[in-house]
Design a protein that fits this description.
Structural class: mainly alpha
CATH class of the largest domain: Mainly Alpha
Number of strands: 0
Pfam families: Protoglobin, PsiE
Radius of gyration: 29 Å
Keywords: Cell membrane, Membrane, Transmembrane, Transmembrane helix
CATH topology of the largest domain: Globin-like
Shape: elongated
GO molecular function: heme binding; oxygen binding
CATH superfamily of the largest domain: Globins
Helix content: over 70%
CATH architecture of the largest domain: Orthogonal Bundle
Number of domains: 2
Membrane topology: Multi-pass membrane protein
Distance between the termini: 36 Å
Strand content: under 5%
Number of helices: 13
Order of helices and strands: HHHHHHHHHHHHH
Subcellular location: Cell membrane
């Protein structure tokens, strides 16, 4: 990792920048409480906040550390010791599994908060613009060190494993990639087959080989299945891009298949008992789908 002197060169850091930060050091004292309150309101936008800040004690410790970091942003000497502190923050984030995206997005909130307070006190003036430019350098430097510490620690873990382990990890990644491509291809094939089947059902209804009532319900059921397959395909694409797959989609596919079966059987009075059983199963799946939807919505 670069030294603090190298980082200062890269970000064109100067004594003037340190002076500009010290001019507005009062921000770290006067607005510390408002900053932390608004920052925590902002954190609620992230669905996994409760995983990283699970209880009041953890939140209290985190608030104290964020307040201290906010004050040091203006008062620090930006030396090797400060660099080590930033690196340790990144290590802690890696240890608890915090995605780097959360750190980057949060830094943008800090940037907006400081600019807002400076504008309130200094207006739109050249002096304010000069101070904001220095603050942006400081925030970018902080972000650089924190995020790079993620990557360096991950690289250390990877390189510390034996050659056999590294080969195994790489092969597992390749196999996983093959599985993902196969799943997408299979789902796309099923979707195309359903489109052809729906067209065939339209043909049967149009030629009179299939009664309109039964054919209409059959087509409606097939469209439901096609919609469910489309949702499943979208979830798999999201998974390849690094997102999490929603269990709700799998329940939705099963629900669509059951609804299609109920629609078809409803035309056969002699299958009354089977219809009752399928209806109860559909209702139960509907409740499960709703519960998952509510839980994922809160997260």
């Amino acid at each position: 990792m670069e030294t603090i002197e190298e980082l200062k060169v890269h970000y064109r850091w100067s004594k003037k920048d340190e002076e500009n930060l010290r001019k507005v050091a009062w921000l770290g004292e006067s607005y510390a409480d408002e900053f932390i309150e608004r920052f925590y309101n902002y954190l609620e936008n992230f669905r996994d906040t409760s995983l990283y800040l699970p209880d009041e004690e953890t939140r209290k410790r985190h608030k104290d550390k964020v307040k201290r970091w906010f004050a040091e942003l203006f008062l620090s000497k930006y030396d090797a010791q400060y660099l080590r502190r930033l690196y340790r923050i990144g290590e802690v984030h890696l240890r608890i599994g915090l995605p780097p995206h959360y750190v980057q997005a949060s830094m943008n909130f800090v940037r907006d908060f400081i600019a807002e307070k400076l504008t309130e006190h200094m207006g739109c003036s050249p002096e304010r613009d000069e101070i904001i430019a220095s603050i942006n350098k400081a925030l970018d430097l902080n972000l650089d060190v924190m995020v790079n510490s993620f990557r360096e620690e991950e690289l250390k873990v990877y390189l510390s494993s034996g050659k056999l382990q590294r080969v195994l990890i790489e092969n597992i990644r390749r196999v996983s990639w093959f599985f993902d491509i196969f799943i997408i291809t299979a789902l796309s094939g099923v979707g195309l087959f359903l489109i052809l089947w729906i067209g065939y059902e339209f043909f049967l209804v149009a030629t009179g080989e299939l009664p309109l009532e039964r054919g209409g319900l059959g087509i409606l059921g097939s469209v439901l299945i096609l919609y469910a397959i489309s949702e499943l395909l979208s979830e798999e694409i999201k998974h390849i891009r690094g997102g999490a797959i929603s269990i709700k989609v799998f329940v939705g596919v099963a629900l669509a298949a059951l609804i299609r079966k109920v629609l078809i059987i409803s035309l056969s009075p002699e299958k009354f008992q089977e219809l009752i059983t399928l209806s109860i199963t559909t209702l139960a799946l509907g409740v499960v789908f709703w519960l998952i939807y509510k839980v994922e919505g809160r997260r």
